[in-house]
């Protein structure tokens, strides 16, 4: 029909939902040929061919087993190779976060196009395509006579034609699941007001009810998903909040599910009793069990500890060749949370601060990838947020206890490691000594690890050899002495003393200088005096912090960005390399965090024509493939630009 631009648009929408849809790539290629865009057409057809002939690898066989310390966990039946797809799952229920309602599709969570589609009934949700709108539960067109109100004189053949046009494509779409937006529609705007997790709880309740209707079964709202919860460990304030939101949610769902979700007078009376007890004994521990039989309360607690954040990689848009100065990617790549979802099988993966699997999302589908070789029978563990190299042990423990109500006992939290020793450490006052000096809070945490090591004499010698191989002797050789008493403010190599109170006072004087540099970078204008002051402050920090302290890596990264903005690219490269060297000590050489930093380095090396850029790009490709497999190019669009430049050279 000659609607080539419309064809490209529709193909692009289809590919946002299913990036490996071979037919969409093929049709896009044909359209580009007709438009004379032959280079794009060749790429489209090549992708179509690759998508068609390569099947997705079989997922690893998993087994859910009960562990002695962490409850249920996921174990691999056979050996798992590095970069293998371990698990793939669509959400039981999902919801967009409020901050992304105007920017991302409410079903697939991809960015919205300029011509986004809104719900025909309430106009609140926005979708990137008709497909997403229908999957989410758009009102269906009815072929009955009521649908043609005011058109009674219309001939039958024209009515049929009209319905075919209105239903074009929609009638062939099988949602395959229960519509998630339908109960939120028809003028009821409560999903705009309530927190995302409460809206998500509503979608879960509706799905359970609808599934029970189809199976002619009774509703068991809490036991249906078989998920853990932390209600008993919550403080009274949090319990009160959950009870209040539960009552509100049930009231909002009454329009559709009055019979299945009744609000009785007894329930309200017991809720009032809960409020009275809360205010009467605010500082005392309330009754451990829910004070009235309100299953959504437990569901909210289940969501709190089992839901996952659906994320998208955010990077500056490339508007021209990457070898032009304005297109160097020196700012941080960030994972932006756009949605929240519950994955039933995915929730059985336990946490580790040194995980052996990594999660990512294509549309709303969870993918779990092995990041290292895993022996048969081993547990597959992901990170619930903090990892070794990102935070130190005490901060990781605090977050996990506050958010998930458990004390982490993974290897990263129970065994000594270089990262936890150096990440916030101070420099030894003795020249050329690489020993670490710890403050009191870090010392307390590391003492506990030492105690666990010493209390297990049968494995003590093996652990010592393992730790020596991990380069701990370089920064803390004293810990290998069985009678050593770990003390704060003393070097763990030469026992030199450092006055940390005076050191912290000196550090505080540099904070305003570092903040001014960050503000200047954000404005894309870095005055010479601010840059010079930042260099001096960095030199001062180097005399106080340990060379592997993460704060040094952060200020070096800021200097790299600043020097790039003022056009001193070689200086930017040098500071970028220094930052990466520190992060490699914290994370390891093949961690995803290193891959993100190498993208900055490679873009700078390309700008100056450095031949080392090719090696950096190859290393980036290897790291991202380890974490994202064949989907690396889709998640990191900038990677395609780097590879293209590498091939051109």
Short description:
The chain is mainly alpha-helical and 649 residues long. The protein contains 26 helices and 14 strands. Among the domains are: 4-53, Alpha Horseshoe (Serine Threonine Protein Phosphatase 5, Tetratricopeptide repeat), CATH 1.25.40; 93-184, no CATH class; 194-306, no CATH class; 393-498, no CATH class.
Structural overview:
There is one protein chain. Helix 7 (196-215) packs across helix 11 and helix 23 (592-608) packs antiparallel against helix 24. With 649 residues, this protein is mainly alpha-helical. Among the domains are: 4-53, Alpha Horseshoe (Serine Threonine Protein Phosphatase 5, Tetratricopeptide repeat), CATH 1.25.40; 93-184, no CATH class; 194-306, no CATH class; 393-498, no CATH class. It has a three-stranded antiparallel sheet. A three-stranded antiparallel sheet has the order 4-8-7, with helices on one face. The model is unreliable at 168-176 and 282-293 (pLDDT under 50). A hairpin with a 2-residue loop joins strand 10 (357-362) and strand 11. The protein contains 26 helices and 14 strands.
């Amino acid at each position: 029909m000659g609607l080539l631009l419309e064809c490209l648009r529709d193909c692009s929408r289809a590919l946002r939902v299913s990036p490996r849809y071979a037919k969409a790539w093929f049709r896009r290629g044909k359209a580009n040929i007709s438009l004379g865009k032959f280079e794009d057409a060749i790429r489209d057809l090549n992708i179509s061919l690759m998508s068609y002939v390569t099947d997705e690898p079989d997922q690893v066989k998993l087994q859910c087993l009960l562990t002695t310390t962490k409850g249920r966990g996921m174990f691999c039946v056979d050996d798992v190779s590095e970069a293998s797809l371990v698990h793939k799952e669509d959400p039981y229920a999902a919801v967009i976060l409020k901050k992304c309602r105007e920017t991302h599709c409410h079903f697939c969570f991809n960015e919205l196009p300029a011509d986004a589609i809104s719900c025909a009934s309430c106009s609140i949700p926005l979708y990137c395509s008709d497909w997403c709108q229908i999957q989410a539960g758009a009102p269906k067109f009815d072929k009955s006579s009521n649908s043609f109100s005011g058109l009674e004189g219309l001939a039958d053949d024209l009515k049929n034609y009209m319905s075919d046009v209105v239903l074009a494509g929609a009638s062939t779409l099988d949602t395959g699941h229960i519509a998630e937006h339908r109960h939120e529609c028809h003028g009821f705007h409560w999903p705009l007001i309530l927190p995302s997790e409460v809206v998500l709880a509503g979608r879960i309740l509706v799905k359970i009810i609808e599934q029970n209707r189809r199976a002619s079964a009774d509703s068991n709202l809490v036991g249906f998903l078989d998920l853990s919860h932390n209600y008993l460990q919550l403080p009274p304030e949090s319990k009160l909040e959950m009870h209040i939101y539960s009552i509100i949610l049930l009231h909002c769902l009454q329009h559709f599910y009055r019979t299945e979700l009744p609000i009785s007078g007894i329930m309200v009376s017991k809720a009032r009793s809960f409020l009275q007890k809360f205010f009467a004994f605010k500082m005392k521990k309330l009754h451990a069990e829910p004070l009235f039989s309100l299953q959504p309360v437990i569901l909210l607690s289940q969501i709190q500890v089992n839901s996952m954040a659906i994320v998208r990689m955010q990077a500056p848009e490339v508007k021209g060749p990457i070898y032009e100065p304005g297109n160097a990617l020196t700012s941080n790549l960030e994972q932006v949370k756009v949605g929240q979802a519950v994955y039933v099988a995915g929730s059985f993966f336990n946490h580790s601060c040194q995980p052996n699997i990594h999660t990512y999302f294509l549309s709303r589908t969870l993918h779990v990838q092995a990041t290292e070789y895993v022996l048969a029978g081993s547990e597959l563990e992901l990170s619930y947020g903090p990892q070794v190299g990102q935070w130190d042990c005490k901060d990781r423990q605090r977050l996990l206890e506050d958010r998930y109500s458990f004390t982490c006992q993974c290897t990263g939290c129970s065994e000594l490691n270089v990262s936890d020793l150096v990440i916030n450490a101070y420099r030894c006052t003795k020249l050329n000594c690489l020993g670490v000096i710890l403050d009191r809070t870090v010392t307390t945490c590391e003492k506990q690890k030492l105690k666990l090591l010493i209390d297990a004499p049968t494995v003590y010698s093996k652990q010592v050899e393992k730790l020596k191989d991990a380069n701990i002797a370089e920064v803390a050789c004293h810990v290998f002495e069985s009678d050593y008493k770990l003390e704060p403010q003393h070097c763990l190599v030469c026992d030199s003393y450092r006055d940390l109170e005076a050191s912290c006072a000196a550090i505080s004087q540099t904070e305003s200088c570092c903040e001014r540099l960050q503000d200047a970078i954000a404005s894309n204008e870095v005055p010479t005096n601010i840059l010079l002051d930042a260099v001096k402050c960095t030199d001062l920090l180097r005399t106080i912090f340990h060379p592997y302290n993460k704060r040094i890596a952060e200020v070096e990264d800021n200097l790299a960005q600043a020097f790039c903005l003022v056009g001193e690219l070689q200086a930017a490269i040098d500071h970028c390399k220094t930052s990466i060297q520190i992060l490699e000590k914290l994370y390891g050489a093949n961690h995803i965090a290193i891959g993100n930093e190498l993208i900055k380095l490679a873009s700078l090396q390309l700008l100056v024509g450095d031949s080392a850029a090719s090696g950096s790009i190859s290393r980036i490709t290897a790291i991202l493939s380890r974490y994202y497999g064949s989907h690396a190019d889709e998640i990191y669009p900038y990677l395609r630009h780097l590879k293209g430049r590498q091939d051109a050279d």
